[in-house]
Amino acid sequence: MLLAVFSDIHGNRQAFEACLKVARAKGAEQFVLLGDFVGYGADPEWVVDTAMELVAQGAVAVRGNHDQAVNSSAETMNAEAQVAIEWTRGRLDTAQRRFLTELPMLVEDGDRLFVHSEASHPQRWHYVRSTVEAAKSLIATPAHVTFCGHVHRPALYSMSVTAKMTSFVPKTDVPVQLLRGRQWLAVLGSVGQPRDGDPSAAFVLFDTESCQITYCRAPYDVATAAGRIRDNGLPHWLADRLSQGR
Fold first, then answer.
1. What CDD domains does this protein map onto (predicted)?
2. Structurally, what CATH architecture does the domain formed by 1-241 represent?
């Protein structure tokens, strides 16, 4: 089965639409959503409704920290993110907020694990930005492949049976074989707010039979997404950063 895995959509309708279109064109058979459906972007209602439809059709979805913040004042954000979350609270209806609240922190599916941040303490929202942090996540699960987001920058880590770690930044559209003798942690880029210098929306495709992962990019209408942010009175930096991929 070919999985299309998305993370950190952040209310960006234009980016999510582009990723769904490209994934379907490439033959995706099932969708996995790694959280942060809301925050930053100006179309949280559409994104959450689309996620709800996909889940009803069999997609897997987990909760992100921005999703949790919509219904919990205990989650702390930087000033601009907090403004966006408070604005988002006023846009979502009861069913949409319930959907976000009831999402699991992680999902295990055979030899795969799906989580927003990382597997050792998913509720603490730790970032995986080094081999040390990746090792903590990998040690916490027997899964062959763990998929996570949260960082907004693509990366791929692996751990051997002797706990030797490797890491690299995968190239776009170049399949990588995830060998069975190692554990793997696939850190996704962001659909709605990439931070690796490339403004194109990011997602991955994973072939469950061949164990090949491909990091993909989808160009989208950045100007419209940014305009929606400005028109709704959200901080302009949230719009400006989209064209810079940061």
1. MPP_superfamily
2. 4-Layer Sandwich (3.60)
